[in-house]
Amino acid sequence: MPRAPLRLLVGVSLATSATLACAGEVDRPALLIESAHVMTMTSEGDLADTDVLLRDGHIVAIGRDLDPATHGVSRVERIDARGHVVLPGFVDTHSHLWTTTMRGRFGGTDGTRFFPVSTALGAVMTAGDIGIAMRLGALELIDGGITTTADFFDNVLTPAHAEAGLTALDASGIRGRLHYGGRDRSTRYPIDLDHLGRLAEARAPGSRVGLGLAWRLPRDRDDPANWAVRQREYDAARRLGLPVQVHVSGEPGPMFDALIERDYLAPGVEVVHATDATPRQLAALDAAGASLSLTPISEHRVGYGLTRLAAFSGVDRQGLGIDGNALAGSADMFATMRLAALTWTGDAREETAVQPRRLLELATVGGARALRMEDAIGSLAPGLRADVQLVRLDALHLAGHAGEDPASLLVWSARPSDVATVIVDGIVRKRDGVLVDVDLPALVREANASAAAIRSRAQAPD
Ligand SMILES: [Zn+2]
After folding, report:
1. Domain co-membership, 316 together with 272
2. Which residue range is the domain that position 419 belongs to?
3. CA 176 – ligand 1 centroid, Å
4. What is the number of domains present in the chain?
5. By CB atoms within 10 Å of each CB, which of 7, 225, 346, 369 scores lowest?
6. Segment 409-440, tens digit of pLDDT
7. Hey, is 273 helix, strand or coil?
8. Where does the Amidohydrolase-related domain lie (predicted)?
9. Which residues have a beta carbon within 5 Å of ligand 1, which is an ion?
10. Residue 447 located in a structural domain
11. Same domain, 143 and 228
């Protein structure tokens, strides 16, 4: 299987960060993570008792007993990482963060199915509700060690809703993309391409949060007018140089074939929920340089089928995703890896069918490759962006580990609560198990109030 080439990248210009960072960020002290077990997810492999030096949003150096002064660093904050595993932040290749305040609403009965319930609730969300749901969702991702998300925002009722979502992602501190979609899943309300274009133009190159297109194929594919709408959207995204995400759930066979026949597969196009894709379809995707996003928990939950990772092993660019914290239940990349591993071994009837490190690759460098961001994130090497998580190993459910390769421990035993520290773009967003500068009780109150208001609005007669 053509494994993702794990390149050691040293060519990223450090000057870029200085020009991009705002004045406040330039003033931050450098960070020295000391004496950790470092999983680089590069050809360098794991490095024991190793330091990682971060400055101005980049990884400056990785090595033993680093002396910041030799790297021109005078002001440094030291983070004692003894007993911790340091690894790249996880990459969530697909989410719907606007649904976060629908948690607990999908009950497995006809009246509580995900699609009708989320559509009804989504239709009455204000821009304020969107901002709350997306900020809550993004902070939960960070809390669980996820530093990048590609968010599929397919409920853009007005330009103000899109702006609220973008503002929420910016404010949360997460890296990622807002994939701008339509009002619903039909072609009745085409995506506001003018607004998307203006937002994309207003973003500085290299912004922590960028834009993309949340694209769908028409449900009624016999009507050429539907195709004309979708073609305009696709062409606009390509013209703007924006990545495109597209669902092939629902009728996966014909939808995937339509992508192939109409020549939509290309670098920068990510195909989501391809649980039943055939070898022929996957070969076409791979040959075109397109990517796969696999979201095992949600795909199992809504009945898209089993996410059999072995079936996708010929695809170069593939990563894992959460697909909405409410549908997945929570933003838990450890549980996502675990379910994918369980499905793989159970399907193969063979305990050794999958290696834990392969799951960790998919959750880090694999996801970065799926988003075509591997030159910036997904692994730890000098020159890459400083997106790093520290996992502490002293919880009850991690005790009894003799200190060998931690890959198996992370995949089979770890939880988001074990993520002690999360750094995105060189800024500490979670420290000693607590999100930084987040009033959690207020956030929870706000989220619950918004969820209740959405619910009562959805129940009120027109
Ligand atoms: Zn999705």
Report:
1. yes
2. 14-88+379-431
3. 16
4. 2
5. 225
6. 999 999 999 999 999 999 999 999 999 999 99
7. coil
8. 85-427
9. 323
10. no
11. yes
